[in-house]
Amino acid sequence: MVTLQEKGVAFDIEYVDLRNKPDWFLALSPLGKVPALEVTDDDGQQAVVFESVVINEYLDEVTPGRMLPEAPLPRARARSFIEFSNALLRDVIGLTGAKDEEALAPVVDRLGTKLDRLEGEIGEGPFFLGEAMSLVDAAFLPALQRLAWANDLYPELASYRGRPKVAGWWAALATKESVAKSAVPDLRQRFETMIARDRGGYQSLIGARVTSA
Predict the structure, then answer these.
(1) How far apart are CA 181 and CA 1, in angstroms?
(2) pTM for this entry
(3) Is the confidence at residue 28, as pLDDT, over 60?
(4) Helix (H, G, I), strand (E, B) or coil at 134
(5) What own/partner pairs with CB < 8 Å and gap ≥ 24 does 190-196 have?
(6) CA distances from 190 to 90, 185, 207 (A)
(7) Left (φ > 0), alpha (ψ -120 to 50) or beta: where does 200 sit?
(8) Closest to 115 (Cα-Cα) out of 171, 166, 161, 78
(9) In sequence order, what are the beta bridge partners of 127?
């Protein structure tokens, strides 16, 4: 969604309940995962593209401008950190699944190690590769967004404290119009409701308290 917004691509969107996937969606998406992009190109050829990384790179290739470096080595580095974003997201999701403080501690440690690595990799900013937003930023957005909310729910995490580049990176992303338009307006409320309803873990108690306040 961010890449579509950044590239100025006109599109229609259909949201899917992943706990009750409709048959038409399963027919389109071989892995039954979102996102899936149904495309008709200029020659009238139709296809379905799935997996976020593939979709983003396709959109980047068929539209003006580039959201990845042109040179092979910086481009490979960018792609490597796009993969790193998936590991970060898994740890962020782990925050809400921990059953108690003992289970939470190793997740926080892993998360801190990854954030420290990012702090050392970010250059002058404000975005990961510099002044312009890239596909690396789009890839990290789900993790950074949810981590910001987790910090609000559990201030002791303080994940961005002492990491000014990571904090500045998230702050820059949070002001982007493409980010604001990349999800439903009540996404945070849905996120907190999901934690309180579905997770049943240590962070769920915090989420339930905030949601009911």
Answers:
(1) 8
(2) 0.86
(3) yes
(4) coil
(5) 191/146, 191/149, 192/149, 192/153, 195/96, 195/153
(6) 19, 10, 11
(7) left
(8) 166
(9) 130
Tokens of 183: 């999800």
Residue whose structure tokens are 């139709």: 46
Tell me 20's DSSP state: S
Q: Which structure tokens are listed for 146?
A: 């949810």
Length of the chain: 213
3-state secondary structure of 40: strand
DSSP string, 46-109: EEEEESHHHHHHHHHHHSSS-SS-SSHHHHHHHHHHHHHHHHHHHHHHHHHH-SSHHHHHHHHH
Note the pLDDT tens digit of each residue in 170-196: 999 999 999 988 888 888 887 777 666
Burial label, 24 (beta-carbon count in 10 A; 0-12, 13-18, 19+):
exposed
Residue 38, SS3 per DSSP:
strand
One-letter amino acid for residue 96 of the chain: T
- Max intra-chain CA distance, the chain: 57
pLDDT tens for residues 45-89? 899 999 999 999 999 999 999 999 999 999 999 999 999 999 999
Condensed to tens digits (0 to 9), the pLDDT of residues 148-175 reads 888 877 777 778 889 999 999 999 999 9
Residue type, 185: P
Q: What are phi and psi of 181, to 5 degrees?
A: -90, 5
**Which residue is associated with the tokens 């579509």?**
4
Residue 167 and residue 172: Cα distance in Å, rounded? 9
